[in-house]
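**Entry details**
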Amino acid sequence: MSFSGLKTNSKAKPIEYYSTNNYAERVHFPEALLNGMASNHGLYMLGRQDVPKLSKKKIKKMTDQTYAEIAFEVLQPYLQWHISDDELGSLLRDAYDETIIPTPVQNVRERLYIMWLTKGPTCSFKDYAARFYARILNYFLRKRGLTRIVLVATSGDTGGAVADSLKGMSNAFVVVFYPQGSISEGQRRQMTTLHENIFAVAVNGDFDICQELVKYLMGDKKCAYDISKDEDIFTSANSISLGRQLSQTVYPFYGYSRMGANGEPMISVIPTGNMGDLMGTVMAKDTGLPIEAIICGLNENSAFEEFLRTGKYIVKPKVDCPSSAMIVPNPSGLARLFDWYGGHVYDRWDEESGLPVEKGIITRLPDLQSMGKDIVAYRITNSWCYQAMKNAYRTDNLILDPHGAVAWDAFERFRFNTTHHLALLYETADPGKFPDNVEKAIGMRPSIPPQMQAQESLPERIYTIDAPPDKDEEGNTTLSAAQIAQVKELLASLFKPIFLT
């Protein structure tokens, strides 16, 4: 099928994106992609009124389209001013080659479907956004003759997916920060065994510390210039990146196309950590996908669930959970979600030290009635997560990973109190990435994916930031000056020989 024949209604002017912390900043997609993070530590966002709409006819037609073709329909309206249809189509066919990244949608029981976003190169849903991100980034870097250092914070799966997608690119280097001791061995090896242009860094702290490191560096023009003579050398591939966020709008369209829904509304059921999937599904709903409700399953790091119940957002110390990629006490994606519903939340950074000093400050509440109508959130305890894995295996012969189990339990709790719905659950990681957790739940170790088996015997390359984070009286941790100093020293040792000799 030719992508050049798939046209959407063209707008007279390109979509503008602004900083969630600085509405005066206005850029187009290529600049937002290359910048990575917006001004004042904000995230790039578009006005809700600017979201392209897809007709019922187009959505119905998706039943006969591949993932790449559906991605074209969803993403082309955002990109039509910046890349030709033929080039975008070629890029998407490469990113979503179904021999490399198939996406089965399984009818589990009655009207419940599971979308297995777990069959790509690194066995997690992060492959989908990372593969698009890598290709669109490469397109604009080559077009402009630029090189970038891509900074990534990972709670487990993002780092491996981004590293795999960008491995070997001559115009991009990748630095992945991960919380030491908080990810599985398999997840770690997906980053540490690649070598080449991939640098994996173990950080003394949780995911939020890693994320704060990325945000700090994105704003440190002096550090960027000192190591490369280019103050714009840093960009990001986290879900703070607009390139990754937009591509997460595609999942629910694809899943819906495989359910035989015939226009019937569906429920989206999502395990939620840093909120990229949640935001993508909210955007899909406004694009025209008939989503009746979004069920959001959180683990014990559940400040967002508490906010929906009480209207108060309180950042608390992290709680270790089997769903390790969702150990995110203060998700950065919340800034986009607040903005979507008319609110504003931000973290305050000290101008002199450059360190974060206060998290989760709300200056304007979102429309809680509208948000609560679209999103239903559940806090799933660790014991409930393990029980959900056991129940899914016993009743439906399903082996779920801990993240999918959080979504499964959230849906069971939602369904108990409501009528029966057509539902799509996102399974986000192969159970083989968490063999110990799965065995604890069902008494059997899952098979390890072949690509991960191949990495078990490969040598690792790991850099370490062992300086401790700062901690307040309540036990909350935050990025420390000692950690920043170590990171700067590491980056100088890695990149000065590359860029300055």
